[in-house]
TrEMBL record:
One of its GO terms (molecular function) is NAD(P)H dehydrogenase (quinone) activity. This is NAD(P)H dehydrogenase, quinone 1. The keyword Metal-binding does not apply. Belongs to the NAD(P)H dehydrogenase (quinone) family. Residues 219-255 are annotated as: Disordered. GO terms for cellular component: cytosol. It comes from the Eukaryota.
Length: 255
């Protein structure tokens, strides 16, 4: 079904006049694990990420990175163990390296890819009811936080709301066809969508002395709010509904 979703995206976007590049990690025999082969010989930095950041252009994925991140990266995948398949995790590990995708001064709202949008679309093996706050699998917003905030927002991407296809393996054919139709319809207006909101780095004291924590005045302001600031910055309060799955309306903040 993920292949069908990919093909629908290629067909729809090509029909709109866009140039679509498909990077099939399996067809590329992409190696998921980061190894010594990713590092230029002779470098003596201690931290692997720093080494690989300096040595990035020697990595076998170097030539295709520009194509994959040229405009609107669309990352489709089946949800495996509440996360991405190993090959996509390996792509994150080996491509989004320090010195290329981020630096100490270029993260989050001032990140390297702050002018680019990205979209996750994925299938689940369980129905939507199981991923509710009272469902046995827990809130899907919590599941998505490490991916959308910890990887994509960290690198500065404007993250569009995810496209989730709930449990297609156990749906009738008519329901899967309806999912595909809804996906095509969304692709028609994708570039005009508002991204998800994340706490901007300006709300934090970005110093080692303060531990990169929320500024005291921000925490004071948040006391009057019914929900936490975000899925990750909930401050001991209820998580904001749909924080990782729905963009704010054009009229203002979604909370």
């Amino acid at each position: 079904f993920n292949a069908a979703l990919r093909d629908a995206a290629v067909q729809e976007l090509s029909g709109q006049g866009f140039r679509v590049t498909v990077s099939d990690l399996y067809a590329m025999n992409f190696r998921a694990s980061a190894t010594q082969d990713d590092i230029i010989a002779g470098k003596e930095e201690v931290q692997l990420l720093c080494q690989r950041g300096v040595a990035f252009r020697s990595c076998e994925v170097g030539p295709v990175v520009g194509e994959m991140l040229d405009s609107l990266p669309h990352l489709p995948f089946p949800l495996y163990w509440f996360s991405v398949p190993a090959v996509l995790k390996g792509w994150f590990d080996r491509v989004l390296t320090q010195g290329f995708a981020f630096s100490l001064s270029k993260i989050y709202s001032k990140g390297v890819f702050k002018d680019k949008k990205v979209l996750l679309s994925f299938t689940t093996g369980a129905p939507e009811s199981m991923f509710q706050p009272d469902g046995i699998d827990g809130d899907i917003n919590v599941t998505l936080w490490p991916l959308q905030h910890g990887i994509l927002n960290f690198c500065g991407f404007q993250v569009l709301a995810p496209q989730i296809f709930w449990d297609p393996a156990h749906c009738p054919a008519a329901k899967r066809a309806q999912m595909l139709d809804g996906w095509r319809a969304r692709l028609g207006g994708l570039l005009t969508e508002r991204p998800l909101t994340f706490a901007p780095r300006e709300l934090f004291d970005l110093s080692f002395q303060a531990g990169f924590r929320l500024r005291p005045e921000v925490k004071e302001e948040q006391k009057a709010q019914p929900f936490g600031l975000s899925t990750g910055h909930h401050l001991g309060k209820p998580l904001p509904p749909d924080d990782q799955t729905r963009a704010p309306s054009a009229g203002g903040n979604k909370k």
